[in-house]
Amino acid sequence: MIEIIPVGGYSEIGRNCVIVKYKKESVMLDLGLHMENYVRLTQDEDVPFEVPLSTLVREQAVPDLLSIKEEVKQVKALCISHAHLDHVGAVPFYASKLKMPIHGTEFTIEVLKALLKDKKKKVDSKLVKHKENDRFNVSENIDIQFIHVTHSTPQTVIIVVHTPEGAVVYANDFKLDNAPLLGPKPNYKAMEELKNVKVLILDSLYALDPRKTPSESIAREMIRDVLLGITSKDKNIVVTTFSSHIVRLKTIVEIAETLKRKPVFVGRSISKYLDAAKAAGIIDFEEKAEFVRFGGQIEKYFKSLKKTTDKIFIVTGHQGEPKAILSRLATSNYFPFGYEDLVLFCCKIIPHEENFKNRAVLEGHLKNKKVRIFTDLHVSGHACREDHREFIKIINPKHIIPTHGEIPMLEAQKELAKEIGYKDDKVNILKNFSRLYIK
Ligand SMILES: [Zn+2]
Q1: Centre of ligand 1 from the C-alpha of residue 175, in Å
Q2: Which CATH number is correct for 216-374, 3.40.50.10710, 3.40.50.150, 1.10.101.10, 3.90.180.10?
């Protein structure tokens, strides 16, 4: 019998974590932050501030491993699917309590190392780097298989937990990008070869969206269309996107080269992810770009520049976060924002009241300076309904557990599965700690 223990992220978005158990052996998949709850706890602090683990658990910012200590003792390995904070960001807070090895792809482990360094935490665990399609053994009865898949950060994998009674496929998060700009297409062959899949745990964030998610190559065309199609001579160009979205950063660097402008990465967060990408052998911009890594250097850097219109500044702060670089530049006296300069938002607003408010404030500052604003130059990293349909048919699982969504999204996933032919009791909408036993 295979047992699924949902720990975080079930009927909620964020703090992804699940335990898959066979006999007395188990593996934990992902250990992430609930971003909204985490930011709410930490954003008002001006000084580095250590939130106690018990508070993080109580405020539902991290998965609650404290209430299942005995269960955690049986975990033979923690496997991380990818480098986003809602999948790996809680590891530093549990650092001293995790006694099992932590497995991930090279980029994921490099990002985890940077997060541990940021929080000044050490883990007793061994950090084990794998290639994107590795298969390895973690206990007497459990094998783990990584399958390469596309997403909005590099080296994302679907994790397959192989047991003597069948496999559990964990696809959280992913998209099916058949024209990716960095790395290969999803490894469909490995997906098709999976046999006896008992359970599919499925990313449902965009289950309500009746589309196929467009390829990242479409996002590139959207950004090219603006930057190569619009007069920008003698104008400042500032672009903002997700720090961990390495391929999007690559696109911006390539367009900067076409425009004969020097790309300049500003801010600690972008540098951190690019350093991880370099260490993982994915990409290296050291020769092509400038880096202004630390907050304290920014004012000095801009004051030292004789000219700013021969560069493209790539900065953090796409959600309008008041302390991020873009908001700081928009309100500073050291960045010469002026008439018809260009600001590109290569993102969408993550739908949350705080973000809409912050973005309105930021865009107000930019408009006061007569800057031209370009929004929504973005495609998602998550599969939509028509990708889910393809994917479910490829994997052909006995049971489906929709995850990474609120109830309406999970219900939409259930409707789709029923449309494909699944019976009601084979699609299991779970809450955290509502265990599922699969024979
Ligand atoms: Zn993700």
Answers
A1: 10
A2: 3.40.50.10710
